[in-house]
């Protein structure tokens, strides 16, 4: 196992995601790229990313908000962004890689925030390695076999085409509603993603994106898991109009998890936690520190 920094960290603890250095750690034959910020004490919160998401795709308001009180760790899983290896074609393999990364950092207990595909990965981790996870935040995601999840590939292709035709970012369509509020929130979110100008991550390769789509499709076709075995406290959050992972999946998760609470944001889509980042950060911190 090796650890290296791509740049020096000087002074006090890093408090801004925009300035968090990209580090690497090698374990299990993979060199993982990651960033961390916030206080060193307490249980760290590991963020698990969405489809086609690299380090620079996390909303800095959400990361900085959580990192004001908790150590936050974001990373590129195998084959994603600056991490080496080939991207798995199953959610289960992604979960194994995530556990390898977490343990490589010497962490024995973490909280996890999984957004979209990351929330699917988180559900597997908490079942395969329950002792590793203290609390779970699942946003914009759904259970194995959840309604409409197998349609993510078609929806992603359609909205990517629509974005190209209108010279927009696909996330404007995939993450946000087409109402005035949704359009404005999308533009603000996309502007925040550009705040970091130095040491930006590598973009996702087409093969990695294709493999992730296959993994999500398979997740959507799986038989439902027995979620009653997950005893950890879980916060489930989403917008009320999620097209990618239909919002009823969030209600389904909250109903089937023994120790869950549900937050639904109005006039919001898949990226509801980014549109309502202030409210989400406040709720998430209260949940994590309770």
Account of the 3D structure:
The protein is of the alpha/beta class and 290 residues long. The chain has one domain: 3-Layer(aba) Sandwich (Rossmann fold), CATH 3.40.50. Helix content is 37%, strand content 17%. It has a nine-stranded mixed β-sheet, sandwiched between helices. Strand 2 and strand 3 (30-37) form a beta hairpin. Helix 1 (60-67) packs parallel to helix 10 (277-289) and helix 2 crosses helix 3 (117-128).
Write a short abstract of this structure.
The chain is built from ten helices and nine strands. It is of the alpha/beta class and 290 residues long.
Q: What is the beta-strand fraction?
A: 15-25%
Low-confidence stretches: 2-11
Helix content: 25-40%
The CATH C-level class name: Alpha Beta
Q: What is the succession of H and E elements?
A: EEEEHEHEHEHHHHEHEHH
GO molecular function, one term: hydrolase activity
Keywords: Hydrolase
Domain AB hydrolase-1: 44-273
Protein name: Alpha/beta fold hydrolase
Keywords:
alpha/beta; Rossmann fold; 290 residues; 9 strands; disordered N terminus
Topology:
Layout: E1 2-5, E2 23-27, E3 30-37, E4 45-48, H1 60-67, E5 72-75, H2 91-104, E6 110-115, H3 117-128, E7 133-139, H4 152-165, H5 170-174, H6 180-192, H7 206-221, E8 234-239, H8 248-256, E9 260-265, H9 272-275, H10 277-289
Parallel strand pairs: 4-5, 4-6, 6-7, 7-8, 8-9
Antiparallel strand pairs: 1-2, 2-3, 3-5
Helix pairs in contact: 1-10, 2-3
Protein name: Alpha/beta fold hydrolase
Keywords: Hydrolase
InterPro entries: AB_hydrolase, AB_hydrolase_1, AB_hydrolase_fold
């Amino acid at each position: 196992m090796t650890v290296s920094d791509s740049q020096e960290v000087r002074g006090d603890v890093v408090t801004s995601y925009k300035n968090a250095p990209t580090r690497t750690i090698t374990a299990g034959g993979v060199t993982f790229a990651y960033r961390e910020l916030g206080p060193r004490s307490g249980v760290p919160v590991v963020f698990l990313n969405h489809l086609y998401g690299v380090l620079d795709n996390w909303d800095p308001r959400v990361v900085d908000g959580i990192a004001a009180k908790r150590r936050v760790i974001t990373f590129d899983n195998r084959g994603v962004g600056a991490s080496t290896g080939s991207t798995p074609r199953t959610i289960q393999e992604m979960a194994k890689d995530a556990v390898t990364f977490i343990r490589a950092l010497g962490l024995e207990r973490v909280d996890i925030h999984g957004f979209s595909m990351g929330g699917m990965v988180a559900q597997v981790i908490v079942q395969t390695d329950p002792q590793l996870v203290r609390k779970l935040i699942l946003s914009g995601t759904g259970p194995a076999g959840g309604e409409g999840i197998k349609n993510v590939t078609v929806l992603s292709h359609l909205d990517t085409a629509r974005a190209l035709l209108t010279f927009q970012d696909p996330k404007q369509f995939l993450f946000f509603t087409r109402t005035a509020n949704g359009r404005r929130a999308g533009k603000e979110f996309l502007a925040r993603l550009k705040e970091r100008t130095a040491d930006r991550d590598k973009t996702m390769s087409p093969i990695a994106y294709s493999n992730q789509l296959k993994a999500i499709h398979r997740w959507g076709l799986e038989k439902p898991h027995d979620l009653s075995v997950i005893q950890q406290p879980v916060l489930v959050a989403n917008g009320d109009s999620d097209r990618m992972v239909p919002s009823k999946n969030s209600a389904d998760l909250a109903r089937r998890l023994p120790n869950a609470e549900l937050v639904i944001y109005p006039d919001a889509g898949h990226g509801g936690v980014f549109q309502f980042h202030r409210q989400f950060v406040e709720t998430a911190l209260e949940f994590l520190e309770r």
